[in-house]
Design goal:
Elements (H helix, E strand, L loop, with lengths): L1 E3 L16 H4 L8 H34 L11 H9 L3 H14 L3 H9 L4 H7 L8 H10 L2 H8 L16 E6 L5 E6 L2 H18 L10 H9 L12 H17 L12 E6 L4 E2 L8 H10 L2 E6 L5 E4 L6 H12 L15 E5 L14 E5 H8 L3 E6 L2 E6 L4 E4 L6 E2 L3 E3 H8 L1
Parallel strand pairs: 4-6
Antiparallel strand pairs: 1-14, 2-3, 4-5, 6-7, 8-9, 10-11, 11-12, 12-13
Helix pairs in contact: 2-4, 2-5, 3-4, 6-8, 9-11
GO molecular function, one term: zinc ion binding
Keywords: Endonuclease, Hydrolase, Nuclease
Protein name: HNH endonuclease
Length: 427
Amino acid sequence: MTITTTDATPKPPAADGSVDDKTQDFEHSPGGDDAIAELAFRIEDTFGRITTCKAQLLHQIGIFDSLRLARRCGARTTAGWLVRRLGISQTTAHEYVRVARELTTYHLLAEAFQEGAVNYSKVRLLLPYLKKNDESTLVEMARKCGYHELEAELALLDRDDGEDAPTRSSYVRIAERKNGRFGLWADLSPMEGAQVAAALKIGELAYHDVDLQDAVNRDAVEEELEDLPTSSGIGMPTGKVMLAAFMGMVNIVRSRPKNPLRAPGAHVNIVTTVDGGAYLPVGGSAASASVAHAVANAMVRVNTVDKDGLILNTSRASRLATDGQLNALMTMWGGRCAMPGCDHTRFIQVHHVHDWADGGATDLHNLLPLCSSCHAMVSERWIRILEDGPDLHFVFRDGSRFVAESYQAPLRSDASLTLREFNEGSA
């Protein structure tokens, strides 16, 4: 049970943006948590004012453009005038004009932008989805979610890439260059991309000489990879071993192994809901036909979730329960680190919310996927993760707090308290 209290924020800066002596001296004397929280608040406040100023700028550009004033100012286009007058690049100028024009159509988004409630990054992220979805719903979502959480939510929605934009067809190209080297590039659907990513994981294991026949045993894979500094663990291979993973995949195909590999990250996840829906948890949704094709023809694992996002069961893709738990966790949290603002998909470790040494169970409700960096921050107590029934509170020392309600994406809620915190404060 999450309890929201009266919001108590640090003293805001003066109207002229000046800061008091305490903050000015911060760089010389870091001080305690209160000083850290105050500086963090001032940074956030300054960013908010930058956002409102940028909203005003784009509003003014929109008016300038709608009145067709560029020619009267000696330029052929609004973007050309911005390049000359503001000294910005062509790319930035054209982006400003495009966004300014669209904001004249979507008044709710423009209003939230001018209030500073939705920043420029989120505005750009939302624009392709507004034509085919309800504007008020999307704007409210943007107000509550962080950027990467919003990105994950939008991935399941239809977007507008232009009325005349042709339907994108998947392709793979390979061409020999004049110097004898080869170029390889591709554009794949979400389902095809997930299958390639799974194959690359198999290629990485093959590169590290993990026995493909024994790799169905999760412990065997982990033992092999523990001592390999170049292995990526969960997720796509890291950049420095991507080529080796790719060549390992090629060698597997050429050698025609008899048995398929069902190892961590070497399968395609499909999530099904209790009402019969199905989707890919990472990289956006896939058409029903694609999901059906994968179930019939691909190496997949099916996970069933309840209305709150908790995985009820996971199909058997390996022989050990720990493999299923890890796969279920990664699927529940979108295939990435659960820490707010972190989008790492590699080097994932499993964290016990209630410490295992203190009797915490190795059950899904007590486990959380964290990247090694975030896990270290939690272990060193720079970040606290508090359990409150089905909710998780991520508490930071700068005074900010994010709450993941019922295993959903964490949202900013600085004034929230766990029931235990509330009771202790009332005692």
